[in-house]
């Protein structure tokens, strides 16, 4: 469909913002409900097979709802991504149209502007011919008519180009939202009986425009900042099957080793952890780097200000997106600055090992390894 001026005039970009706000609100509610369910289940202090089954069930539910939360946040981002551009594109189209319309110089009429952006000088030329009377075929009038047609063509060029920009912006917005909706539908489809097999991952719609790039760190993994799916945002110390900090084998580990500052931060954190009894292999720097990339995009100053923990006054902070209570529980002496990259890695890594038995067993790491996708830890 070719976009018209009337189509653009009816755009209400504020509806996208309202929908995005609704999506982010759902994330907060879902995080809170899941956290409450997990906490209430643990508070029952079940033992034996029934207790183990309940714990496994809640871990499964938390992983699956975390995926829904992540998908909702992607939808939130997609809905907001082009709002400013859509508003600007709409204003430009209407401005160019009104500029062409507001050319009346009474009694000389304005240019005619069609809904598809076509601009004609018919009314103006008819007036000039009537006014010329017997000299309607004079060279002077022909030059005047040509001038009017050239001005009309200039107005049309600006309007048509503004419409093209608006259409490209709208198509880009539609593609981003469609991709986010497909991912959300897949994540929602996985919810249900944990005994059932997850539905197959869908094929995302192809982008109609080149992807937009920003200043965020680049790697083989997509980046997020302050992922609200991380249980570190509200997680607390839990019982672990591991009797010591030693790592157990998990899914196939990531292989992309960190570089630059991240490599140095991770190397120093591993050194400190080893000094405190954690048997961490050098290759596991890639696993830590993966978690950092997905949680904060590698930004040591990242902070999540939109989930339920942020609303409670304890936002997730730093490279591995820990909340203050969790950081305080898992930091080591001399490493108590949540904004310090090394200190944050130490606390986040200790939490992951204590919670899941190894870095390789972190659900998001397993998800990347088996192709089901990253979820917060």
UniProtKB/TrEMBL annotation:
The lineage of its organism: Bacteria, Bacillati, Actinomycetota, Actinomycetes, Mycobacteriales. Residues 194-213, 229-256 have a biased composition (Low complexity). This is Transglycosylase SLT domain-containing protein. Residues 283-362 form the Transglycosylase SLT domain. Residues 192-260 are annotated as: Disordered. SUPFAM superfamilies: Lysozyme-like (SSF53955). Pfam families: SLT. It comes from the Bacteria. CDD domains: LT_TF-like (cd13402). InterPro entries: Lysozyme-like_dom_sf, Transglycosylase_SLT_dom_1. Residues 215-228 have a biased composition (Polar residues).
């Amino acid at each position: 469909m070719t976009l018209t001026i009337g189509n653009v005039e009816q755009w209400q970009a504020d509806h996208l913002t309202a929908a995005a706000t609704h999506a982010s609100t759902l994330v907060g509610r879902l995080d809170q409900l899941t956290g409450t369910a997990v906490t209430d289940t643990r508070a029952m202090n079940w033992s034996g097979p029934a207790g183990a089954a309940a714990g496994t069930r809640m871990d499964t539910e938390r992983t699956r709802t975390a995926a829904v939360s992540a998908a909702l946040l992607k939808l939130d981002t997609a809905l907001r991504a082009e709002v400013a551009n859509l508003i600007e594109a709409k204003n430009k189209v209407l401005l160019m149209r009104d500029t062409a319309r507001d050319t009346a110089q009474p009694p000389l009429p304005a240019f005619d502007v069609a809904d598809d952006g076509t601009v004609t000088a018919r009314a103006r030329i008819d007036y000039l011919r009537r006014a010329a009377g017997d000299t309607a075929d004079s060279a002077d009038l022909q030059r005047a008519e040509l001038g009017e047609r050239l001005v009309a063509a200039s107005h049309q060029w600006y309007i048509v180009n503004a419409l093209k920009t608006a259409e490209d912006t709208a198509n880009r917005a539609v593609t981003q939202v469609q991709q986010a909706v497909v991912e959300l539908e897949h994540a929602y489809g996985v919810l249900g009986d944990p005994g059932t097999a997850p539905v197959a991952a869908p094929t995302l719609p192809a982008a109609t425009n080149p992807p937009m790039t920003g200043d965020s760190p680049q790697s083989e993994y997509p980046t997020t900042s302050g992922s609200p799916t991380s249980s570190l945002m509200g997680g607390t110390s839990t019982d672990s099957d591991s009797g010591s900090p030693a790592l157990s084998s998990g899914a196939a580990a990531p292989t992309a080793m960190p570089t630059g500052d991240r490599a140095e931060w991770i190397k120093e954190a591993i050194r400190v952890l080893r000094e405190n009894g954690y048997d961490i292999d050098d290759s596991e720097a890639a696993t830590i780097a993966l978690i950092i990339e997905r949680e904060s995009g590698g930004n040591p100053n990242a902070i999540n200000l939109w989930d339920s923990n942020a609303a409670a006054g304890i936002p997730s902070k730093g490279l591995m997106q820990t909340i203050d209570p969790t950081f305080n529980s898992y930091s080591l002496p001399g490493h108590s600055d949540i904004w310090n990259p090394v200190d944050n890695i130490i606390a986040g890594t200790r939490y992951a090992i204590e919670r899941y038995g190894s870095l390789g067993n972190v659900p998001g790491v397993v998800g990347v390894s088996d192709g089901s996708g990253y979820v917060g830890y």
